[in-house]
Design goal:
This protein has 497 residues and is an alpha+beta fold. The protein has helices at 24-27, 59-71, 79-95, 127-132, 136-151, 154-175, 179-214, 221-238, 247-250, 255-266, 271-276, 281-288, 355-359, 417-428, 435-440, 457-461, 470-477; strands at 2-3, 16-19, 34-37, 104-108, 115-117, 122-126, 292-293, 301-303, 306-309, 314-317, 322-326, 331-335, 340-347, 367-377, 380-388, 393-401, 404-412, 431-432, 444-450, 491-496. Residues 447-494 form the LysM domain.
Length: 497
């Protein structure tokens, strides 16, 4: 059964969430408790009632389910895609060692590439992962991998490990007369947990490949998709993407895992079994045709160097050589070379507190209070201040827009006229969106097309809209390496607006 249909915007629900600093430069500021304000969303697909949950969930599992929905944009409603995933899961369950178990899959409305499972049998897969996969066997490899975590009780084991680690932490803290011994004990605990996690991933890979193969899916789907994730991660890294929600953060696609997946597949890859193993590419691509790609405009979105938030009604632009990324917690900008970075988020500031007082209220260390300046940016009350860390220097702006206060934090390794100009130009570009701009905001989507005679990878990539490095993105989306070509009547994915 596929679940549920609730959604959220980039800032939804009118509640506050403490979040980590995502850019390394900004982490060095000593800034504490960055927060994200959330406000109601505008659904871009069919609205529906509150998501149904798997039967017999504990209160803790329900809370975790709600947390996951809040973190990953709610659930994505697409009946055609839900039907494909339901049929795939049914085949996998029937081929598993526990056909009596019940699983419930929720498609998450997030462009991140991720999937995970709860011990209850609740499985989650993002639409970003669905868009990256190229056939049903690749998707089945992800679903069977997550089912394997449930079958092997990995989540429960991890909880036990976490409790043991917390106990060790308390003990060594109480003993803490010898800092070196305390640090050593904690390091050993963390190392054992990391090693255990790698072992779990390899075990889940093996179990998952077996389930997929017995369900008559191509057993090499896992190794192909791991390779696609590696290429996708490399493309994101090349543009300074700091997003931390992707599958590779918890499921590293190391060469060891790729080799392990290939070796597992060979056990099922006799000539007869390979012939039987379905990729089901055409059915899969037809099911994902028109799926939302990347960010949902209701969450705010990036177009080139500009960030737009139609729901909240504002936009701003970063200078040339900066790359923008809309993460779940903030908008992050990184300058080519990594010597300048920017974070844009929203904070709670009481209406009676001045912006200058907020900037000097202690949430950031080493603030030069004498640098506080009151400004007006395009008619919006603003204040700025400077601060200094060990390796980075900071320029911070707080801007009041309606009842909300937005924060720009600029970090540079060395203050210069250029870094000052970049910060000033970015803040000065903050403005209201026009009604036409709001009405024109729409999501990017995957469009599946048929390759025609004369089409090439290069010519097809020119039909991509709204993405940077379209040639590289086209290859990643279609599982093509640097030398692969296309031929007439192939089905391929492109991104359109």
């Amino acid at each position: 059964m596929i679940g549920s249909k609730g959604r959220r915007s980039f800032w939804t629900g009118r509640r506050w969430l403490a979040v980590p600093v995502l850019a390394g430069a900004l982490a060095l500021a000593g800034c504490g408790d960055f927060r994200r304000f959330e406000t109601a969303s505008i659904p871009t697909s069919t609205p529906a009632a509150k998501p149904p949950r798997p039967p017999a969930q504990s209160p803790a599992a329900e809370r975790e389910h709600e947390r996951i929905l809040a973190t990953y944009g709610g659930a994505y409603d697409d009946p055609r895609l839900e039907a494909l995933i339901t049929a795939t899961v049914d085949r996998l369950v029937a081929a598993s060692d526990r056909p009596d178990l019940t699983y419930k899959v929720t498609i998450l409305n997030s462009g991140a590439v991720n999937a995970f499972a709860l011990p209850t049998g609740q499985l989650y897969v993002t639409r970003g992962l669905v868009a990256l996969a190229s056939d049903t066997s690749e998707l089945s490899s992800v679903l069977s991998h997550e089912m394997a975590h449930v079958l092997a009780k990995h989540a429960a084991i991890r909880e036990d490990q976490a409790r043991q680690a917390a106990l060790v932490t308390r003990v060594v803290t109480d003993m803490g007369n010898d800092p070196e011994m305390t640090a050593l004990a904690l390091a050993k605990t963390k190392l054992s947990m990391a090693s255990f996690s790698r072992q779990q991933e390899l075990e889940a890979d093996g179990i998952g490949v077996g389930i997929s193969a017995r369900a008559q899916f191509d057993p090499y789907g896992a190794s192909r998709f791991l390779t696609a994730m590696e290429r996708n991660a490399a493309l994101k890294a090349s543009r300074g993407d700091a997003r931390s929600q992707d599958f590779l953060a918890s499921h590293p696609a190391t060469p060891e895992r790729v080799r392990n997946a290939q070796n597992n597949a060979r056990q099922y890859a006799s000539a007869e079994q390979t012939a039987k193993g379905e990729r089901d590419r055409e059915t899969y691509l037809n099911a994902i045709d028109n799926i939302v790609y990347g960010e949902d405009p209701s969450e705010g979105f990036v177009r080139g160097r500009r960030f737009l938030h139609p729901k909240l009604g504002f936009t701003f632009q970063v200078p040339e050589s900066f790359t923008l990324d809309n993460t779940a917690q903030a908008v992050i900008g990184v300058r080519e070379g990594g010597n300048q970075a920017m974070r844009f988020d929203v904070v709670r500031v009481p209406a009676e507190q001045s912006l200058g007082d907020y900037l000097n209220s202690g949430w950031m260390e080493n603030v030069d209070k004498s640098s506080t300046e009151d400004l007006s940016i395009n008619g919006f009350p603003t204040a700025s201040v400077t601060a200094r860390g060990d390796q980075w220097q900071f320029k911070v702006y707080a801007l009041r827009f309606g009842s909300d206060v937005y924060r720009f934090i600029f970090a540079t390794r060395q203050k210069s006229a250029e870094s000052e100009r970049n910060a000033r130009d970015t803040v000065n570009s903050f403005r209201r969106l026009t009604l036409d701009e709001i009405q024109a905001a729409r999501p990017l989507r995957i469009k599946v097309i048929t390759v025609q005679p004369g089409d090439t990878v290069e010519s097809l990539s020119h039909r991509m809209s709204g993405v940077d490095r379209p040639l590289d993105r086209f290859r990643v989306l279609n599982g093509l390496d640097a030398t692969a070509t296309v031929k007439p009547r192939d089905l391929v994915k492109i991104v359109v607006d």
